[in-house]
Amino acid sequence: QVQLVEYGGGLAQPGGSLRLACAASGFDFNLYAMGWVRQAPGKELEWVSNIYNDGSETYYTDSVKGRFTISRDNAKNTVYLEMNSLKPEDTALYSCAKARTYYGGRSLYEYHYWGRGTQVTVSS
User: Fold this and answer.
1) Triad 4, 87, 53: Cα angle to 5°
2) CA 59, 24, 94, 87 torsion: positive or negative?
3) Do 79 and 21 form a contact (C-beta atoms < 8 A)?
4) What is the pLDDT of residue 28?
5) Do residues 69 and 19 make contact, with C-beta atoms less than 8 angstroms apart?
6) φ, ψ for residue 67 (rounded to 5)?
7) Mean pLDDT score, 13-31
């Protein structure tokens, strides 16, 4: 059974950094794209980033481009999200998601398993 467990959330100051990790199990990690999504209080679930199964392609929503970096370690079945220059509007519950395909995409429909998430709060 597919399991996705996120780590690394917490409180950061504006301009600070956090690194999220997501440990995956229950499927062949090498075959599927992975993504990160987030949900801020009172807002809809939002796609943040995705990475191809082999790490060759990465994509980001406009609001995090140049600040966030997605990566993966297929030997460890883990996907990461490095978040720099954090802003208060980045405050949200961040979840990793398993894509249905090797490439994933921007649409939430491209994903069919999600972890429970890790809270990121950006505040001074």
Assistant:
1) 30
2) negative
3) yes
4) 97
5) no
6) -115, -35
7) 98
